[in-house]
Amino acid sequence: MDKIALTAGALYLIILLRAGGTFAIGWLAGAGARRSRFAGRISSERFQRAERAIQRWGAPVVAVSFLTVGFQTAANFLAGSMRMPLPRYLPALFVGGAAWALIYATAGLGVLHVLGRLFAERTALGVSAVAALLLAVCAVVVYRRRRAAPPTGDPAAEES
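-> structure tokens emitted (160 positions)
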């Protein structure tokens, strides 16, 4: 249990620094945008309405974003750039960060324990499992890149 508590504490500190830093960078980017050539667009009524909605209702989104993969950075940056007040942001950061740290500490340590035992008891199976995982990740990356790439066709047909 001490391992989990220590890991969760370290992960909690990491997520507070990372997410808080992302919020601060978003705050600075938003301040810079308000002083740039985009200031006219940002001062529109529609944008102001969206900003007020995020300032008021964005805290639950920030808290839940820690339970997702890939959305938490965007949520924290957006909260900062839209100037979410700290009294609303900080509780969401503390609660969501704690949930994230506990999930990753318990599940992460469990996965590492299983992998350690697998490699210690059946090295060939462990190496095969890691190789299969790496191949699957590579296949997903190649598939996504090919889908995102524009189709290459006959150059003569593209010119006309």
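Residues 80 and 123 are 47 Å apart (CA to CA).
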